[in-house]
Structures are given as C-alpha cells and as structure tokens.
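ASSEMBLY PREDICTION REQUEST
Request ID: AP-0331
Submitted by: J.K., bench scientist
Number of chains: two
Total residues: 705
Priority: normal
Notes: Please return the full assembly, not individual chains.
Input sequences:
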Amino acid sequence: MIALTVRDGDSVRNELVHLGHASATVDDVPMDQPPQTELPKNLTLHVGNDDALLERADSSPQLTELVLAPVKLHRRNIQRRLRESQTPKDGLQFADPPEVGKRVLDAADLPTRTTDRIDRLSMIRSVLSDEDVSITTSAVRSDPQTLEQTRTELEAVTGFHPERVEILEGFASSLPAPIDADATEILSAATDVERALRKRASKSISDVEIVRRAAREILATNGRAWQEAFPEVDSVSLVGVSSIPAAHIDLLHAVLNSVSVSAHIHFRRGTGSYLSRRVPQLLDVAEPGAVVFES
Amino acid sequence: MMCNRLALAEPLDDADVPAAEIVASTRRNEARTVKATVSSLRNCGIPVRDIAVVVRDLDTYEEPLYRAAIQYGVTPVVWTQLRVTRTRPFALVESVCEVLGSEELPPAMLLRPLEHRWSPRSSTSSWPVEPEAVQESLQALPDEAQTLSEWIEELEANAEIGERLVTYAEWLGDCPEPTPEATTDVLTGVVEAYEELGLTVTKENDSPSLVDTERDARAVVRVKTLIQQLRHKYADRLDEGTVDRSWSSAAELNQLIATQRPGRREHSNARAVDVFEASDVWLLDIPYVIAVGLVDGEWPQQTGSVVPPELQEAILRGDGRVGALAPRSAWTTGRDRDQFDDTHRAARDGLIVTRHTESPSGEERRPSPLLEHLDTDVVSAEERRRLVSTDRKLPDAVVAMLDAEVADGE
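STATUS: Completed
Returned structure:
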C-alpha cells in the first residue's frame, strides 16, 4: 500500500489518505466505484499548505525545483515572498506547462511553433465556409468564437485522449434525451474542429498540443527527452491551481512514469480537498498525452 | 447528485485575521470608500506598499477607482492588461491606416490622425495641431469624399489652409506601399512622434495624479509591441495568401492582435497602491488588504460554458470511469472561492471587505455569499460617512487592526 500525503494548511488538520483504503477514507466516493489506482510514490499533494513550497526552497537550496505556475503573476508573488524572507531563490526555476513543453521538444530537436488564437479563429472561419467539411450542431452556435470555446473546453476535460473521449462518448449517450444528443454533438463538434485545424495548419494547433506532444515524447524516450531539457531539476511542482486541465495532468503523469523526480501539486484551500481526491482517477489513463487523431 | 458541487462549497476555515466590512450605497461610493480608507491608512503612517486593493474583476471597478483616486490623491496602479484599443496612440495608428487604406475619404476621416495628435518626426514645438485648429481646417475643406491623391493635391495647392496641413499631406503622399516592413516603419514613426510630442499634451492636461499620462505612456509601449507583432502576422498572412497587401488589411490585423493577444500585466510604482485582480493574489502576504465588490452575482461568479449542466454535474461527480475526465472548477463557484480565500489569507494584519447595496438604477444588490462564513465587524453608516468626509477618520474596526500590529511589535 502506498500512502498519499495530503497536507492541509493547518497542521492540526493534516490528513493522510491511504489509497489502499480510499473508499473507506474518502467519504463521498460511491461504493460501486472500482478501486482507484495507487498514486506514484514520488507525488505529494498539498492542500492550502503553500508555505511548504517556500520551506522547500529554504531547507534544500542545493536542490533545483521547477515550479509550474500557470498564472504568470504567481511567479512574481513567490519571488516576492522569498525576497521578503531572505530565502535564496537560486533553487527555483519557473515556467508554465507550455514553456516546459517547448523546452522538452526543443531539446529533442522537434518543432515548437504554434498557431495562436487569432490564426485558429480565422482557420475555423475558413473551415466553416468549406463545403467539404461539415461542423454543424444544434447544441452550440456555429460561429468561430463558440466553436473555439467548445474546442478548448472539451480539450481541457478530455485532452482529446482516446480513453477519455471514449468515456465521455459513452457517458453522453447514456444521458436522458435530449441532453444525450446535445452532449454527443458538442463533443463531436470539438473533435471535428480540432481535426480540421490539424489538417490545415503546418504548426501545432495550440500551446496545449505542445504540452501533449512533450508528454508523449517524454514517455517515448523513457524520460530522456525530459533529462535533456531539465538535467538539473530534482523536483517539479504545479502551484496555485484551482483545476487541472487534462493536458497538464498528463504531462505530470508522463514525467512521474519515466523520470525519477519528486513531484508536488499545490491545490488551493477551497477546491483542494475535492481535486486531491480526484487525482488518482485523473492519473488512471494509459499513454498520457495520446490523442484520438492520426499522426 | 450535488455531492461534489457541495464539496466545492464547503465553508473555508477563517484565516486568523480581523475583518471589517464597509457597506456603501453605490459602486461609485464604494470606490470612494476604498480610496478614503487607503488615504487614511497612509495618514496613519502605513507605507503604501503595505496596502493592496483586490477586486474580482477590474472591468467594473477600474474607472470608479481611478476617479476616486484623483479625489483622494492616492494613485492606484493596476496590475492588469491595458485596454489598448481604447487609447489615443492606438486610435492614431488606426486612423493613419484608415486614411492610407480607404479609396475615398470624407474630410473628417482625412483629418482624424491630426485630431489624434499626428506629428511629423523630429519636428518642433508647433506640433501637434491644436484641436481648435483641426476643427477650423475641417470647416475650410470641401464636404465631399475624395481619393487620397485628390486630397493631397488639394491641400498642397491651397497654401492658405496652413503650412502644417501641407506638411501632413506631403507625408501622406510619401508613404510607401504597405509591405510588412514599410507598414512597420511608417507606424513606428507615427508612434515615436506621438511619444515625443503627443504625450506632452496629455501630461499638460492631466490631473496631479498623472493617471492619464501614465496610461498614455503605457499605451505607447504597447502599441510599439503590437506593430512588431503585426509585421510578422501580416507577412505570414501575405505568404499564405489569406490577406491582400493593403493598409486596411494591416489595420484589421492590428485590431485583431490588440484584442486577442493580451499585453503584459503592468506594473509597479513605489508611490502608488497596488490594485490586483483576485486571480493574481495567491501567496501574497501584505499587512492590509481591501477586498472590493463582495456583492451577490459579482463575486463569486460562474464562467459561461458550452457544456450542458447535466454533463458538467456528472464530470464533477466523477463516478466510475467518468472520474478520468478533468473537472473544471469554473463550472462551480469553486475557483472564485479559492481566490477569495487567497485574498483573505494575503492579509497579514487586517482584511477590509467592501460592497455596495444598489445598482445604478436603484435595484437592490445583496451581499456576496462569500461573506456568510466570514466573521466581520460591520462599520456603521456614521463611521463610513466620517471616513469619506474631510475628517478621513478610520472606523474603529480598522483602527483596532493598527493597534493589534503595534501590540504585536512590542
């Protein structure tokens, strides 16, 4: 049995969730749920215990931690706190997941150029006027902005990962009418848009695709791609998050599966206890970073 | 069915920090309260760096806070993206493209760059043309739309219309074909001349807080960056054959980049009070935090989604294999609650929350449910009145925070 430490902001409320007995410990998990996958032992989840991040920088300045802060200003906040407490910050490197993806792909000599939202919107516009492709749905409006929102929202949920897409398809069709049709339609609209964009663009469709490609590359090279991009990194943390898109969890998953670094996720206090209970399920997919599209 | 939505709404533990609540009638009065509080804290010797103002959404509070700031002499610095399309340097660049790109122009369109303070580069103090002089020229010009070359001919042939208009016409006539390089050069020149001469006018007309000057200067920097981005995007699009080579295409792309690509978040000024959006506050540690806009429907707020609510619910619950799907906390109030908690925890010595009770049309605005679990000392109407009056007297609940700090230090 592997112990998953969930550290809470107040030491008195520290809780230790033993995953082998997950359904007994976590009270709102339905009994019919299949046993959860055990978490990798080098992953620690923190809930609201943000000082732990600063303490790590303070207690092991010789170790290098790569801090993934999706909100850019959060890096400045961390640096300000370190400065105020006169903690050396040499041990911390900052990036967001797409930057990590770019460095991994760069180190492997793979292309890293992406189309941006402006390009995507204009490509979707031209896809819509193309008679060979049909992206029509009554569930959402067929204008470029709404279709792009549909694509990004479903991308955050599924990462276009084959298992997740299948799960969502299966679940959508089990919903009562007429929601089943709506749910099915928005999922296929999202994948159709992504597929059409991939056909048209010579570059990666988005930063998110860069993150997924990096995850695949790390796995395919058994961690070498990561080692080459971040030879000096001892641990990696994802900080300041209120939710985790599929692509980010898949990147972390790929790293944990193939590299011997320790990893930390720092959740916020409000959503943290919920999200930390969800992590084992989010990690329970094969081939993180894989997509339903060919090539 | 609602279990996980409820799990995302569990009450948060109180941070161990005293909290005061100030209630104002309107949003505008609330902003005045905020600025009066900052001003009074400053008068008590609190350094401006020890105070932060936090809002969920700057769109609704930026203007009222700026206006109140002028009244109370406390300059706010907003950690946010500049809405560049609403600035004069952007309007100037846009109007130049419009003049160069239109087949026929009415006189008002022709002179619009002058209204936005177009000046030739390395020119003298006679530039930019004063607004009154632009209006006079407009009266003197024929009403009909003409092509640009017809206009240039007309201006150059009528020296009595003024030397400066002739200079402008000559410059227009000399503008090259809009290749990506030429576009960048022309527009950069326009912005640099503005930086040299137009910005000075803003400064002369500005209030002592120099709020407009600061914004104008930021806009100059941002517009220069946009023009560089335009060069690449325009070259790409020309290669792909998706746009034609014209000033109008350049203008359209420029508008697109400005609205789609957020600029850098700005910026620190030692003498001004930081105004943050709540999403950026995580991990900050500041003695006094003023959380603004704790109004039901504003904070927390859920983001619009294309996913049907029933499906959201199921993904949030994550039963069985559905648990492998990544839930989005923006479907619930979870994300906003996190950010309010960040705000609360950022406050080291005291949290001051403010809200307003009526909309501009007089409808009732209820307190935010986020306040239900927060133990606050509500400031009386009389105390609020004295705070915003020339007395600037801090409410007792806030004074107690200062005393606590002094006691701690001893």
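REVIEWER COMMENTS: Residues 3-110+208-282 of chain A form a domain with the Rossmann fold fold (CATH 3.40.50).
SIGN-OFF: pending second reviewer
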